[in-house]
């Protein structure tokens, strides 16, 4: 049987705060909150969630892995504004300005993108 994705793990200084931010962004819920691990997901039976783990060092460079989020085209700008109001900020990772995505960073500086909607995983 092949492996399947269980959690995406994000290192964090303030686990509960970052978990609440991402739960609000995604419309998910906090499923488990422990001193050294907070897990969020759409529900307890979802196949994939996000797990926040403690880290002491500061983020110093661009992420090597990031999340791409999408929304219907007519809601994209409103969603970006909603996410900014939750505590995200715009991030510059070398964009030229003609990209079909917007780069944001969460409250701890982890970059992510809001991309154009698409119908498949490719293209």
What does this structure look like?
The chain has 123 residues and is α/β, with parallel strands linked by helices. The protein has 2 domains: 55 residues, 2,3-Dihydroxybiphenyl 1,2-Dioxygenase, domain 1 (Roll), CATH 3.10.180; 62 residues, 2,3-Dihydroxybiphenyl 1,2-Dioxygenase, domain 1. Helices cover 19% and strands 32% of the residues. The chain has a 4-stranded mixed β-sheet with strand order 1-4-3-2, with helices on one face. Strands 5-8-7-6 form a 4-stranded mixed β-sheet, covered by helices on one side. The longest helix has 12 residues. It is globular, with a radius of gyration of 15 Å.
Brief summary:
The protein is α/β, with parallel strands linked by helices. 19% of the residues lie in helices and 32% in strands.
CATH superfamily of the largest domain: 2,3-Dihydroxybiphenyl 1,2-Dioxygenase, domain 1
Structural class: alpha/beta
Largest sheet: 4 strands, mixed
| Unreliable segments of 5+ consecutive residues | none
Radius of gyration: 15 Å
User: How would you describe the shape?
Assistant: globular
CATH class of the largest domain: Alpha Beta
- Per DSSP, the total helix count is 2
Task: Please identify, by name, the CATH architecture of the largest domain.
Answer: Roll
- Helix amount: 10-25%
The helix/strand order is EHEEEEHEEE
- Sequence of strands across the biggest β-sheet: 1-4-3-2
Q: What is the number of beta strands?
A: 8
* CATH topology assignment of the largest domain: 2,3-Dihydroxybiphenyl 1,2-Dioxygenase, domain 1
| Strand fraction | 25-35%
The total domain count is: 2
End-to-end separation in angstroms reads 29 Å
